[in-house]
Design brief:
The structure is a single chain. By secondary structure, the chain is of the alpha+beta class. It folds into three domains: 25-130, no CATH class; 139-286, Sandwich (Jelly Rolls), CATH 2.60.120; 293-457, Jelly Rolls, CATH 2.60.120. The chain is built from nine helices and 24 strands. The chain has helices at 4-28, 40-51, 69-72, 76-84, 110-121, 147-150, 199-202, 215-222, 435-452, and strands at residues 155-158, 162-164, 171-173, 176-178, 185-194, 203-211, 234-239, 245-247, 252-256, 261-268, 275-277, 279-285, 294-302, 312-313, 318-326, 331-333, 335-339, 344-352, 358-364, 375-376, 384-385, 390-398, 413-414, 425-432. The strands form five sheets. Strands 1, 5, 8, 9, 12, 13, 16, 17, 20, 21 and 24 form an eleven-stranded mixed beta sheet that branches. Strand 18 and strand 19 (358-364) form a beta hairpin. The chain is globular and about 60 Å long. It starts with a helix and ends in a 5-residue tail after the last helix. The site of heme C (HEC) has 20 residues, from helix 4. Heme C (HEC) binds next to helix 4.
Length: 457
């Protein structure tokens, strides 16, 4: 047991530290030089630029701009509460378990949260205007950014235009559009964005899924999602603010087949003006005849035991289900994108390797239907698994009143397409590879880890 005096000592240190903070705030006022009191210009503005302004700036989908001090000042209470509860920025992965390195991590570090909270608690001082960083320059998202590298997209596919009235409920629009492709082509990059600048305001999110009939993708999912009626080759790309597009890894690509279609799933919301817009997908092919060695296949991994239609959630209750998928080839898991509706609460992806070990790959513990976040693993964090690995997907649902997104806890909920029905699956992109390539990837990864781990003392 720890001696009591030690505990008292620790408490005293905390009090001293806090006392200093308060004293500094009092003495320093708006002076950013005061140690311990964060100011807007010096400490907070850089965080907002980095983690918030992609959405919170003029013309984008968030309800208010967080660019200048005057923009942010009226919102400080809400900012503190959303940031401290990790609801903003939208990033719902559990930070205590599973892989934590992502290509698109927009979450705040503990230090950044602490800075914002202390800034608000200190009365949200502005600080010295000289400390204000220059405005952040964002990449233009109304042009094809990869055109500089590859020339203009080889194929542009537009969703059917949709009008969002000034006042309306959120809509999930799902038109299907032919690609017009008459031959097999390998894709090396994809970009997606609303067709007009105005459209960015109403387009909360857009997903484009490639629908094509091929025996391979059916087989991949046959293990447990046998009754899933979608036989697509997976999600092509999503439009998310702040994300320009996706270039495939070296020597990898997605294969598009003749007669393929794009199934759109666009989340529109009303912003007080009638706005009509569409979303455009720009596709860059590998030159004809050039075949990448690895094929990326993005497929739906059900979390519902016995098939996706087996969701059965009585009123005022919770529900959990899990399903298992065997990897028939070795490969690298590139991402994790859980999909549930309003009762969805959490989803976990675990891997049971042939040696009997189970590891948590990712766990989204605070699922929110408004945000279809795609968690894309860092190059050297994307897990490698041997043939025969079982991917286990678990989903949790909360159909009680304590789920604040629940429109009606007194309803029975089953499988369905409407947001008041439920679903349970993850979109997972796997790069399959022959065993010898898998083994050399694993060896490379180990060497990397050795190089970055300091030797024992
Ligand atoms: C990916 C886009 C995105 C990012 C990044 C983002 N927000 Fe938001 N934010 C939104 C949207 C959309 C809403 C409105 C819907 C909602 O409340 O969830 C919102 C709502 C909010 C609200 C609530 C406003 C109200 O009406 O009470 C606050 C506060 C907020 N954001 C602060 C932040 C802060 C601070 C950051 C960065 C640390 C941030 N957001 C990052 C999109 C974003």
């Amino acid at each position: 047991m720890k001696p009591k005096w030690l505990l008292v000592g620790v408490l005293a240190v905390v009090i001293v530290a806090t006392g200093r903070t308060v004293a500094a705030a009092g003495a320093g006022g708006n002076d950013s030089g005061a140690a311990g009191t964060p100011t807007f210009t010096k400490d907070v503005a850089p965080i907002l630029q980095d983690k918030c302004q992609a959405c919170h700036r003029e013309g984008y989908m968030a309800p208010m701009s967080l660019v200048t001090y005057e923009d942010a000042r009226p919102w400080v209470k809400a900012i503190k509460s959303r940031v401290a509860s990790r609801q903003m920025p939208p990033w719902h992965i559990d930070k205590t378990v599973g892989i934590q390195r992502f290509k698109n991590d927009r979450s705040l570090t503990d230090d950044q949260i602490d800075t914002i909270v202390r800034w608000v608690d200190a009365g949200a001082p502005k600080g010295d205007p000289k400390d204000m960083p220059p405005p952040k320059q964002f990449a233009r998202d109304d042009v094809w950014g990869f055109a500089e590298m590859f020339g203009p997209p080889d194929l542009i596919i537009k969703s059917t235009p949709y009008t969002v009235p000034a006042v309306a409920q959120d809509a999930w629009y799902k038109p299907v559009v032919e690609t017009g492709l008459t031959e097999r082509r390998w894709v090396r990059a994809i970009e997606i964005h609303p067709s007009t600048v105005k459209g960015r305001k109403i387009t909360h999110h857009a997903l484009a899924r490639l629908l094509q009939d091929e025996p391979g993708s059916r087989e991949l999912r046959a293990s447990s999602a046998a009754d899933d009626d979608q036989t697509s080759a997976g999600l092509f790309m999503e439009w998310a603010v702040g994300k320009q597009g996706e270039i495939m890894r070296p020597n990898s690509g997605k294969l598009m087949l003749p007669g393929s279609k794009i199934v759109w799933d666009i989340h529109y919301h009303a912003v007080g003006d009638d706005i009509t817009d569409s979303v455009e997908l720009g596709i860059y092919f590998y030159p004809k005849g050039q075949e990448p060695k690895y094929r990326q296949v993005l497929a739906l991994y059900s979390s519902i035991a016995g098939g996706s239609r087996n969701i059965d959630i009585p009123p005022n209750s919770t529900f959990v289900s899990q399903a298992f998928h065997v990897m028939k080839q070795s490969g690298r898991i590139e991402n994790f994108q859980p999909h549930m509706h309003l009762r969805g609460k959490g989803m976990a992806l675990e891997a049971i390797t042939p040696d009997g070990k189970t590891e948590v790959v990712s766990y989204v513990s605070d699922y929110n239907f408004n945000w279809h976040v795609n968690y894309v693993y860092d190059d050297d964090a994307a897990p490698l698994f041997p043939k025969g690995t079982i991917l286990k997907v678990t989903s949790w649902y909360d159909n009680t009143a304590s789920n604040r997104n629940n429109p009606d806890p007194n309803q029975w909920v089953g499988y369905g397409d409407r947001t008041v029905d439920e679903m349970g699956h993850a979109w997972i992109n796997v790069t399959y590879m022959p065993d010898e390539d898998y083994l050399s990837e694993v060896a490379k990864r180990k060497a990397q880890q050795r190089a970055t781990t300091p030797p024992p003392q």
